[in-house]
Input
Amino acid sequence: MVDPNELLETVLGDVDGILLFSPTTSFYEQFVDADVDVVVVASENDLDADPFVELPVAFQDVYDRVRFGIEGALEQGLLDDGDVVACISSVFDEDLDTVSRVRVDADSTSGVYDLFENTRAEPDVLRSVLELVIELGKKGQKGQPVGALFVVGDAGKVMNKSRPLSYNPFEKSHVHVGDPIVKVMLKEFSRLDGAFVISDAGKIVSAYRYLEPSAEGVDIPKGLGTRHMAAGAVTRDTKATAIVLSESDGMVRAFKGGSLVLELDPEEY
Amino acid sequence: MVALAQLPDTEQLPEWLLDWPILLISMIVLVGVVLGYLLGRVSKSVLEAAGVPQSVEGTAFERTAQSLGTSTVSIVSRMLSWFVYGVTVLTAIYAFRPADTDWIWQRIVVFIPNVFIAFMVVVVGFVAADKAELIVSERLRGVKLPEVSLLPRVVKYTVIYVAFLIALGQLGIATMALLVLLAIYVLAAVIVAVAATKDLLSSAAAGIYLLLREPYGIGDRVTIGDREGVVQEVGVLVTHLEDDEAEYVVPNGQVFEHGVRRERN
Output
C-alpha cells in the first residue's frame, strides 16, 4: 500500500520553483516564507505579490495557462532553462486543485507570452481585441458563424501595405476597441469583407482593408484558408499582431511574426 | 430658548412644579438625556445605512478612531448626543436662573451650536482630507517615483487648512490673515500650473483640431518640422511618426508651428 503523500512527493519533490495560478490570499500567505521561488500568475495582482505574471485572458485550457505562466516567468528572469517547477492551478472549481510538474525548456517556447507583452500594441488593446473576437465567435452574427480578421499595432505600416475595398466606415471617427459601443458595432461590421486595422493605442483605424503583404515564407498549418494566410503574412511583413476568427471551424487564432502563436476555442470562454 | 424661558408662565405646568424648581430641572435633564441618547442611536444607524463606514474606510482618521476602539460614525453620533446633553445642562441652568440676571449664559447658549458646527466641520474636513489623499495616491500608484508621494500630502493638508478656516470662521475668530495666506497659496499653485503646462495646453489645443479635422491620418507619410515618417498614432498631445530607423514623438504644438508636409500617394 502506497501512502498518497509519497505519490505527491514524486510530483512535488526537488522543484526549483512554484507557480501559483490565481491563489487566494490565505493560500498565498502560506507560501510567503517557502524556501523555493514562488511566482504568482493571475489576471490581477491584488495580493501585491512580488514575482508576478499577469494573465491577459482567463485561459480555460490548463495547458495554455501553465504555458503562459512559465513563459512569462522565463521572460522576466524568474525561472531558468531546465528548472523544474510545480504549477498549482484550478481545473474544476475556483479552488486550486491541480498540481503539475513541468520542466522549463527555453528553446521550445510557443511565444504566447511574447504575443501579449512584447508587442507594439499595448497589452490592454490586444486583450480587448481578443475578448471581442471570442465573443464574436461565441455568438456569431444573427446565429450564423462569422469570420473576422483584426490586425493590431503598427497601423501606419499596415495601412501602407493594404488598400481599401470600399469607403472606410471608421474614417474621422475616434472609436477605441475598449469602448462599450464597439461590441455591438463590430458585430454588425463583421459581415464586411476585409480586415480591421487597429492602432497601437487601440483606435480602430479602418475596416474593409484588403491586405497585400507578400506571402513568401509564411509558415502556417495547412488547411487554413486565405484569411489566415493573409493574417500570417501581414504579421511577417510588419510588427503587427493578427487575431483571426475562423468562419469554418469557429476557432480564434493569433499570429505574430508570420507564425501561429495561440489557438483558442471561443466556446470554452 | 425664548420658549423655555416662558415655561414657568405656561398653564400646562402644574402649580406644585413651579414651587419645586429642582423637579423641573430634573425633568428637563431626563428629557434631554433620553433625547440625546435616542438622537445618537438614530444618527448612528442613519449614517451606517447611508454607507458612511464604507466610504471613510482606510482613512487615517478612521484608523486612529479604530485604534482608540471606536469609529468615525460612533464619534459623530456620540458628538450629537453630547451636543444635546450640553444643551440640556445649559437649559437646566438657565431655568434655574432668570434670564435677565445673567446674560452671559445667553451668550454661551447661542455660542454652543457654533462650536458644535465648527467641530463637525473639522471632523468632516479630516475625513475628506484623508480621503482626498487616498484618492490622489491611488491615482499616482503607477508612477514609481519617491518624490511623487509629496503630492497626496499637499492635497491632504490643503483640505485640512480649508476645513480649519471654515471652522474658525464659524467661531467668529478673525481669519483674514489665514485667508490671505490661502489666496496667495492658491494663486501660486495656479501660476505654477499654468507656467508648467503652457506647452501641454498649446499642444492639446492643436491636438483637438487635429482629431476633429484629421488633416492627416494613420498611414499617411508626413513631414513635421525636420521629422519625416509614417503616422502611427494621432493623440491629443502628441503625434507618433515612424521611419525605418526610429519612431518620433512629435508634440502637436509643432504641427502648428511648422505646418505639415503630407505626401500624396
Summary: The longest strand of chain A covers residues 204-211.
